[in-house]
Each structure stands twice: as C-alpha cells, then as structure tokens.
Design brief:
Helix content: 25-40%
Radius of gyration: 17 Å
Distance between the termini: 25 Å
Number of helices: 4
Bound molecules: inosinic acid, magnesium ion
C-alpha cells in the first residue's frame, strides 16, 4: 500500500500559501524577480506555484546531476545552466526536496559565482531537516519532514519513474521491486 504524504489538495494549498508570501516579499523589488526551477524534480511544483504569485516574474531552469563518490563525498555536476543574465534580480530557486542540501548549496554558489543576482532565496516542497549536511536553509517550504522517507510523485522519481503522479507518496517495497524488474527486463 502506498503511504500518502501530500494529496493534490494539500499541494495546491501549500502553493497558495507560498505564492502569497512570495508575492508580499517581492512586491517592491525594483527589478522583476526570477524563479529558477531545478530540473527535473522541481518542475511540477514550480508550474503550480507560479499560478499563485500575483506580481510579474520571470522563469528559467537549471539542472545538476550528482554521483556518489568512493568516499562519503559527492560529485555534483552542472548539466544545464541558466539561459539569460539575471544580474541585479532576486532569484528564487525552486526544487522538489532538500535532503542533504549539497545540490542546492552547489547551485546557490554557482549562481553567485557566475552571475550577479541581488540575492538568492530557496523554495522546496519538502525539507528533510534531519538529513541536512550542507549549510543551507529553505526560505519557503511546503512541508517539513522529520523522518527520512523516500518520496515519489509530483516530480519526485524512483529511477525516473513516478514523476507524473499528481500527489506525493511513499511506495511500498513490492511496488519498487516491480519497477526494478520492469526496468531490467524491458530494457527501457
Ligand atoms: P540533496 O543534494 O541531498 O539535498 O538531494 C536533493 C535531490 O535528491 C533532490 O532534488 C531530489 O532530486 C533527490 N531526492 C532527495 N530525496 C528524495 C526522495 O525522497 N525521493 C526522490 N528524490 C529525492
Ligand atoms: Mg531534484
């Protein structure tokens, strides 16, 4: 049985709450702020969140990949960079979940290093607060998770599967086994 973590209704109310706050916080910025979606997991959340922001915004996307190294360290690589100059603008990085925080910290550092944003704010549907290793905080959070659950749906994947499910859930082991077999035998 799937364990429900956030229903569609709960996702929309989180988007409304965060959208209202972003609207208030950035209403007086001189330059139009830019929401940057972290591909691929952050895309469904960003697409719903923007509907609840009632000031002009711009959008862009960025993508990293992360590999487990031989030690506990991880190598993070930039796969897709921004497409235009964001100098002087407030940036909000929008991701699905912040776990160890290494990916988000890498992105914040990358953007400060190569662009000249006014400031960078962070937004995630989930904040796994007890898994944090990197020194990074989530400014706008949909739901704080104290337990380390493996989430799927609404952008969150298991070997790229489940991103299209409209709610967030914890799959059971039987279901994960079926997906693994499917990927192995169908050679997708
Ligand atoms: P971090 O660098 O450890 O914070 O990892 C963040 C990234 O790992 C997220 O953007 C997700 O792509 C992925 N991730 C972390 N936790 C989960 C999960 O529970 N389900 C699916 N993907 C996850
Ligand atoms: Mg992600």
């Amino acid at each position: 049985m799937r364990e429900m973590v956030l229903t569609e209704e709960q996702i929309y109310s989180a988007c409304e709450r965060i959208g209202d706050r972003i609207t208030e916080d950035l209403r007086n910025d001189e330059r139009i702020p830019v929401l940057i979606g972290v591909m691929k997991g952050g895309v469904p959340f960003m697409m719903d969140l923007i509907k609840y922001i009632n000031i002009p915004i711009m959008m862009d996307f960025i993508q990293v990949s992360s590999y487990s190294g031989t030690s506990r360290s991880r190598e993070i690589k930039l796969v897709k960079d921004l497409t235009y100059d964001i100098e002087g603008r407030t940036i909000i990085l929008v991701d699905d979940v912040v776990d160890s925080g290494h990916s988000l910290l890498y992105l914040v550092n990358h953007i400060y290093e190569h662009y000249k944003p006014k400031k960078i704010l962070t937004c995630a549907l989930f904040d796994k607060v007890n898994a944090r290793e990197a020194d990074i905080k989530v400014d706008y959070c949909g739901k704080i998770l104290n337990e380390n659950k493996f989430l799927c749906g609404y952008g969150l994947d298991y070997y790229e599967v489940y991103r299209n499910v409209p709610y967030v859930f914890v799959p059971d082991t039987e279901e994960l086994g079926e997906i693994e077999n499917y990927l192995r035998f169908k050679k997708e």
